[in-house]
Design brief:
This protein is mainly beta. The chain contains one helix and seven strands. The termini are far apart. The N terminus is likely disordered.
């Protein structure tokens, strides 16, 4: 029981908000994280190479101010950057899903 108080499981997944709620999440990283730590994720990319990945940041907040413990870079098969549309896309067998796009490339409603 004491172990459960000190550690909580951490599971990060790449999901899309484009109407595919029934899709299976893609597990990017799975590891125990101390209860005082927080986890943040972000899509990163290299526009020249067209590559994209997920950065996982671990933050320790035991001493009031969160401090970065480390960052893990995880490659996801099928994830890439399209420089023409300025989007990070995830390639499925039958479709491409936009998982991130630059704010200045969004169209106004």
């Amino acid at each position: 029981m004491n172990f459960m108080k000190k550690m909580m499981p951490s599971l990060l997944a790449v999901t899309s908000v484009s109407g595919l709620a029934r899709a299976t999440p893609i597990v990017v990283w799975e590891a125990p994280v101390a209860a005082s730590d927080s986890v943040a994720t972000a899509f990163e990319f290299d526009p020249k190479l067209g590559r994209a990945w997920v950065d996982i940041g671990l933050n320790d907040s035991r001493f009031g101010e969160p401090s970065t413990v480390g960052t893990i870079m995880k490659k996801v098969d099928g994830l890439y950057y399209d420089s023409e549309s300025k989007q990070v896309l995830y390639r499925l067998a039958t479709a491409r899903l936009c998982v991130w796009k630059r704010r200045d490339s969004c169209s106004s409603p």
